[in-house]
């Protein structure tokens, strides 16, 4: 039904009708009422937004607690313990949100925006936040070179962007990721910095992680028992960070051990995955030869 303004109709030519403001208002209300329920935020989407918030706050902690005191000359060390630990803890919390939003989305409903929100949040928490952490480390560390560190950080961001874009437009067999998952890559990048290795090995390690994220190496998805192991490992990492921050006896050693284990896992998993892939290829080839001989 079209609502016509009497005053407008009186001034319009005979035989024509001119719709008043109430006409398009009613049509707009009808369109809003017809929005599908799938575009409304779900519980999984709320967890994904928590992921994005943690990533942004990690950047904030790195800036206000590490970079700004260094630039103002009030820093008491290369990397402030409290601020660096706070930033890394927030990235770990972001990985927890990222782990559970997928589990909740599979158990409950997921909105049509879920995949897009997840990619955007991952870009903030596991692309921008760790790359910025590397840049600040390159600025505040005595033996580091800011421009080289910035170049390595750019490679991390580009790797995450390319990985997320490829994930959105390709379909893989169920249960695996192609390339190192971005949360795992982000934690490995941060662990390399916290290990306090010389500058060159650290930068090479960061570049290597960036390459693994865009590689074709298959990684298992954290489901079932693996999801529980991942969650427990994240809690242990948070405990190591808290012990390091509070100067608990042996806290620094715990942090170094945790960071070293993270880096070792990042190096060992691709080797196992590659070995398994080669063995599968050889087995298929032998089977094909056997069938051809028959």
From TrEMBL:
It is an enzyme of class 2 (transferase). It is found in: Endomembrane system; Membrane. The keyword Transmembrane helix applies. Coiled coil: none annotated. The chain crosses the membrane at residues 49-72, 84-103, 123-141, 148-165, 185-214, 226-247, 253-275. It catalyses: a CDP-1,2-diacyl-sn-glycerol + L-serine = a 1,2-diacyl-sn-glycero-3-phospho-L-serine + CMP + H(+). One of its GO terms (molecular function) is CDP-diacylglycerol-serine O-phosphatidyltransferase activity. Keywords: Lipid biosynthesis, Lipid metabolism, Membrane, Phospholipid biosynthesis, Phospholipid metabolism, Transferase, Transmembrane, Transmembrane helix. Its main location: membrane. It is a multi-pass membrane protein. InterPro entries: CDP-diaglyc--ser_O-PTrfase, CDP-OH_P_trans, CDP-OH_PTrfase_TM_dom, CDP_ALCOHOL_P_TRANSF_CS. Residues 7-23 have a biased composition (Polar residues). Pfam families: CDP-OH_P_transf (PF01066). Belongs to the CDP-alcohol phosphatidyltransferase class-I family. This is CDP-diacylglycerol--serine O-phosphatidyltransferase. It comes from Streptomyces polygonati. The gene is pssA.
